[in-house]
Design goal:
Elements lengths: L7 E6 L4 H10 L3 E7 L10 E4 L5 H14 L2 E2 L1 E4 L13 H19 L3 E2 L2 E6 L22 H16 L5 E6 L1 E3 L6 H11 L7 E2 L6 E2 L1 E3 H13 L7 E6 L5 E2 H13 L6 E2 L2 H13 L10 H4 L11 H7 L7 H14 L1 H7 L6 H8 L5
Parallel strand pairs: 1-2, 1-5, 2-3, 4-6, 5-7, 7-8, 8-13, 9-12, 10-15
Antiparallel strand pairs: 11-14
Helix pairs in contact: 1-6, 2-3, 3-4, 5-7, 7-11, 11-12, 12-13
Length: 364
């Protein structure tokens, strides 16, 4: 392995996040990694770590000046820092962090005369218009259905207008999961089925359509391939990053039910209007916890995202090794082994039954 002095430097924003940590780990053997984040991580994950609030222009400037004292040449800037909230509620942070934070980074790199070989932005597959059947590719139409993907589209526009001489790469990443889950749609669906909640049997849309997911290790590998290919990519590149074969909503629901309960799981299709009324009513009832399913989610329940990764395969030599349909059993092993710990790790309220089962783990 080359010495620290000989290695090219990669700057990663949002390095303390789940994807940021994994990308830093994958790049560390070949590159010197400088990580930026608003909060200091609780462990060593990069060669250098700097606190940086991307919503504060002065802080961005001071942080980049500190980076430039270490090096003026950056093999790649991997920009992961962004705001995300699955509640669907509007937030000024979508603009202040995701959009304007991107602008501050690009302008700071330019004004301080960094030699940047590449700027890589972590966008989302959700910026794409859902498909009526044909696979989605990089040239397909964009359409944001809520604030989060709209902020990604706006940030992409900022990069296209302001990247200047810095080559830019946009990665539109599918729903990311890992061995423990850590995917809000997957963990929510799993807990509804595990607890045999009514919502775990119902589906308000076309259950034969589906979402595209991607394992975090495949995401990290894709970032590494992008950095390695920086000298042969075009000045503006866009890639879709996900598993090329989708798991339909019906198959996902059935497979989770089969793994958790050892029997065929029925999926009952209900009219969207009925489901929206039920979600609205439930949100008005006194409850210990906030219901996850909101009426606005019903309209997006059967959004269809089949993709082709031909461009990533051809230009980067990248193809995911994992497939969600095969990996669900690994994800759900943790739920069956220790439900309370799995709930906590996935940000779910732990039911009393799961606490009781912690004392007497499932025997399988």
């Amino acid at each position: 392995m080359p010495s620290t002095e000989d290695r090219n430097t990669v700057l990663i924003t949002g390095v303390s996040g789940r994807i940021g940590r994994r990308v830093a780990e994958v790049l560390a053997p070949s590159y010197r990694v400088i990580g930026l984040d608003k909060h200091a991580p609780d462990e060593h994950i990069a060669d250098a770590l700097l606190k940086c609030d991307l919503t504060d222009e002065g802080d961005v400037r001071r942080t980049l000046e500190a980076v430039r004292q270490q090096t003026e040449r950056l093999a790649s800037v991997i920009h992961l820092a962004a705001y995300y909230d699955f509640s669907g509620q509007p937030s000024p942070l979508y603009d202040q962090l995701t959009v304007e934070g991107t602008r501050r980074m690009l302008r700071g790199l330019s004004e301080l005369a960094f030699d940047v070989e590449q700027f890589v932005f972590s966008s989302s597959l959700l910026v794409m218009k859902p498909s009526d059947g044909d696979p989605i590719d990089e040239a397909s139409e964009l359409r944001a259905e809520w604030d989060y993907p709209q902020s990604k589209i706006d940030a992409e526009d900022v990069i296209e207008n302001e990247h200047g001489e810095i080559p830019a790469v946009i990665l539109r990443i599918a729903g990311c999961y890992d061995d423990a889950g850590h995917s809000i749609p997957l963990s929510q669906q799993a807990h509804r089925i595990y607890e045999k909640k009514l919502e775990g049997y119902l589906f308000p849309g076309n259950p034969e359509q589906g979402q595209t997911f991607v394992h975090i290790d495949d995401v990290a590998t894709c970032f590494a391939r992008v950095v390695a290919a920086r000298n042969r990519l075009d000045p503006w590149e866009v890639f879709l990053v996900g598993e090329p074969d989708i798991v339909s909503y019906a198959e996902l629901q059935d497979r989770i039910g089969e793994i958790l309960h050892g029997e065929e799981w029925p999926t009952i299709r209900v009219p969207a209007a009925f489901a929206k009324a039920g979600a609205w009513l439930k949100s008005k009832l006194p409850a210990a916890d906030e219901p996850f399913i909101k009426p606005w989610m019903i309209d997006l329940a059967d959004a269809n995202y089949p993709i082709t990764i031909a461009r990533a395969r051809d230009r980067l030599g990248w193809e995911p090794r994992y497939r969600l349909r095969d990996h669900l059993v690994v994800i759900l092993d943790g739920l069956e082994d220790d439900p309370a710990a799995w709930y906590e790790d996935n940000g779910l309220d732990v039911p009393d039954e799961a606490v009781a089962e912690r004392a007497e783990p499932n025997q399988r």
